[in-house]
Write a structure and sequence with these properties.
Order of helices and strands: EHEHEHHEHEHEHEHEHEHEEEHH
Radius of gyration: 19 Å
Low-confidence stretches: none
Helix content: 25-40%
Strand order of the largest sheet: 1-5-4-2-3
CATH architecture of the largest domain: 3-Layer(aba) Sandwich
CATH class of the largest domain: Alpha Beta
Number of strands: 12
Mean pLDDT: 96
CATH topology of the largest domain: Rossmann fold
Bound molecules: phosphoric acid mono(formamide)ester
Distance between the termini: 16 Å
Number of helices: 12
CATH superfamily of the largest domain: Aspartate/ornithine carbamoyltransferase
Strand content: 15-25%
Oligomer: single chain
Structural class: alpha/beta
Length: about 300
């Protein structure tokens, strides 16, 4: 099993480590009290907004008996605003904490950070790049919900160009067998060639299909994502918005055994009544967000113990 000292991209996981983390996440879910990281400090450094990632990491660290120091709007309220380089910031925080979790608006920033970090480092999203801990919790969710990963057909729907969760999950699925991925996106927000090339190299069958109605009845997982308005021109947003959604009209096309996932936050691409969101077993995204706490607890232990 490959021991990790930092996590910047989901390709770093091997299968053995993934299943070890899933098992530990299950154990941590059941355990009432745990102080395995007592005396350790986690720094969360977020240059972009977040609800789930930052708070679930902080919750994870506190549940493990550790402490948290945090800057939730580092773009404005850290010394970045005074012109400090990312490298200097990381060097300094390395001496305040035992692990750093960072979200940044620039793709490649996580790589820059690990070149100077003296402590374990976790990429919590770098621009349009990757979000490997989201992929970890997504895969953990798939495994918990369906009991397997090999052999599944997974539809990735929405903004596949800018959606870093789609990138990280695609790379992670490349480690499994007999997987089929169907990419469904607006014409101007297609999945990157480098990901398609990676999937081909790892024997993952994929196709691109712009007709969601053809895809919904055959997918085991529908992984739908938000159009990332903040990462594109107004023109691109106008071309893409409202093109794909899960709603009361097409929910019936989805198999009763399938699961609808979303990294959240969702806007109009999921348009279902609250009773359906709360009672239909196929709706997985709130359980998915909850799973993030346990998957991140397991990862923090792996990196810091
Ligand atoms: N899924 C996810 O990254 O959510 P946040 O942006 O709220 O952290």
């Amino acid at each position: 099993m490959g021991k990790l000292n930092y996590l910047i991209e989901s390709q770093q996981f091997d299968k053995e480590l993934l299943f070890t983390l899933f098992k530990r996440a299950d154990e941590l879910r059941e355990s009432k009290a745990n102080d395995s990281l007592k005396g350790k400090v986690l720094a969360t450094l977020f240059y972009e907004p977040s609800t789930r990632t930052r708070l679930s990491f902080e919750s994870a660290m506190l549940r493990l008996g550790g402490e948290v120091i945090s800057t939730e709007n580092a773009k404005e309220f850290s010394s970045a605003i005074k012109g400090e380089s990312l490298e200097d910031t990381i060097r300094v925080i390395s001496s305040y904490a035992n692990c750093i979790v960072m979200r940044h608006y620039e793709e490649g920033s996580a790589k820059k950070a690990i070149s100077v970090s003296k402590v374990p480092f976790i990429n919590a999203g770098d621009g349009k790049g990757q979000h490997p801990t989201q992929a970890l919790l997504d895969l953990y969710t798939i495994y918990r919900e369906l009991g397997k990963i090999d052999g599944l057909t997974i539809a990735m729907v929405g903004d596949l160009m800018n959606g870093r969760t789609v990138h990280s999950l695609s790379y992670l699925l490349g480690k499994f067998s007999n997987i089929k991925i169907i990419f469904v996106s607006p014409e101007n927000l297609k999945i990157k060639d480098e990901i398609k090339e990676y999937l081909t190299r790892h024997n993952v069958v994929y196709e691109e299909n712009s007709n969601l109605s053809e895809v919904l009845p055959i997918a085991d997982i529908i992984y739908i994502t938000r159009i990332q308005k903040e990462r594109m021109s107004e023109n691109d947003y106008e071309l893409a918005k409202g093109k794909y959604a899960i709603n009361s009209l097409n929910l019936g096309q989805i198999k009763l055994t399938s699961r609808i996932m979303h990294p959240l936050p969702h806007v109009e691409e999921i348009d279902l009544p609250i009773e359906v969101e709360e009672n239909d077993k196929r709706i997985t995204y709130f359980r998915q967000a909850e799973n993030g706490v346990f998957a991140r607890m397991a990862l923090l232990e792996h990196l810091m113990k």
